[in-house]
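Appendix C reproduces, verbatim, an entry submitted by the partner laboratory led by Prof. M.T., so that reviewers can inspect both the input and the predicted structure.
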Amino acid sequence: DSPESLMEIRGGTGTGLPGGAGILTLSTAETSIVDGDVLGAIVFQAPVETQTDDARDRTAAIWAQSSETYTASESGTELCFATANDQDAGAFATAQIKMIVDKDGQVGIGTASPDNPLEISHADQSNVTGGNIADNSAVGLHIDKTGDHDGAGSVIKLSSNSDGCQFAIAHIQVDDNDADLAFHTDNAGTL
């Protein structure tokens, strides 16, 4: 078989992965890893043109970095996703991290230090109003449905597997002009 792209990695037997999956390894030559060291990166860059400066700026990157000084028993690593805009174009290490998966598996969007399994943060200090909610200019978590039929909607569900207690907020489309906001709890009278 001939490759279908400029680089193709095929696994073989003995890789330790299901089906002998291909492995791409990115690593640093640094032998003493301290907090914040980049271990490997994938950098996306604009095409080389006749211009200099911004024409070749790195526009996005994904990298792994240490989240602590490595020892025989500690090797915490974070996976960082960054994109550049007009304020932070340039080397990937100076681009703002837009999303991170920390060493404990917690995901931060808009924060590089999540304190919860999923933490979404933003610096927008605009007041939330009916108008900016309706025109999608309010900043925050947006859950959107893709269907356009009666009964379709979006749900935020909070639950605890240990005691089966559940709470949900649902947006349900009634028809083309109306929608309901429904609140549900398994324990009546506790809302």
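Residues 130-134 form the longest helix (5 residues). Additional entries are available on request from the coordinating office.
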